[in-house]
Amino acid sequence: MDITLKENEKVEDLQCKGLRIIQNKKWFCFGMDAVLLTNYCDIKNNSKVVDLGTGTGIIPILLSGKRNYSKAYGIEIQEEVAEMAKRSVELNKLQDKIEILNADLKNASEFLEPNSFDAVISNPPYKLNNSGIINPEDKKAISRHEIKCSLEDVISTAALLLKQYGRFYMVHRPDRLADIICLLRKYRLEPKQIRFVYAHVHDKPNMVLIRASKHGNPELKFDKPLYIYDDEGNYTDDVYKIYGM
Questions:
Q1: Would you tell me which of 136, 159, 164, 191 could form a disulfide with 187, CB atoms 3.0–4.6 Å apart?
Q2: What is the DSSP letter of 147?
Q3: For residues 57 and 64, is the Cβ–Cβ distance under 8 A?
Q4: pTM (two decimals)
């Protein structure tokens, strides 16, 4: 399918079953965290899924090549970013499987049925909106800072949309872990699984992958650490497997 590219846009090969995505090099481009989160989502066949703050649409698009879900919705508040994500969906001929919604996730119950989703996924802004002067219309800033939504907004919306025992998947920063677990429990999302991600073996973790279950029983399991680079600076075998190399 021919898709018209706009200024500063390019098409990137996702190296997964021929999937491609449109990126704007002046905006926030998806990173490894989105790829790791997508791989972490062990959702079941025919699941109904929603991605909160979908951005370029990377997670539902990439997930379509890894899991056999029935329908995915991607919510994105920025109009131009949502429009670009819609074109990426069309580029991959996934219109029947993925629907991009240009909306505020805080109003999700107005257009998505509560208590009906098998899985909710989010790669939310990591940084608190209290550090320096930020342009509230800057697309990179909106993707990185809690300008349009807070961590609590994401978690409360996930709890609202998930059905009983539905799964919530998120990637975030380890220094927010106390906040994350407190908020998950506040909204009856029981943390079930955690994996810390490290750049190198001797570094501190720089990402944390989390799975929670709506109204699940208390039992938190820790996966083995994920190291990105080996001592020679090459990707580890775990990362090569995630990228399908």
A1: 159
A2: S
A3: no
A4: 0.90
User: Is there a contact between 221 and 237 (Cβ–Cβ < 8 Å)?
Assistant: no
What is the chain's pLDDT, residue by residue, as a tens digit (245 residues)?
567 787 788 888 888 888 999 888 777 777 889 999 999 999 999 999 999 999 999 999 999 999 999 999 999 999 999 999 999 999 999 999 999 999 999 999 999 999 999 999 999 986 665 555 455 555 544 445 445 679 999 999 999 999 999 999 999 999 999 999 999 999 999 999 999 999 999 999 999 999 999 999 999 999 999 999 999 999 999 998 888 75
Number of domains in the chain: 1
Q: What angle do CA 168, 237, 42 make, to 5 degrees?
A: 20
Give the residue numbers spanning the domain of 219.
9-242
Instruction: Tell me which residue of 109, 49, 45, 91 sits closest to 74, measured CA to CA.
Output: 49
Give me 181's structure tokens. Answer: 């677990």
CB of 3 closer than 8 Å to CB of 22: yes
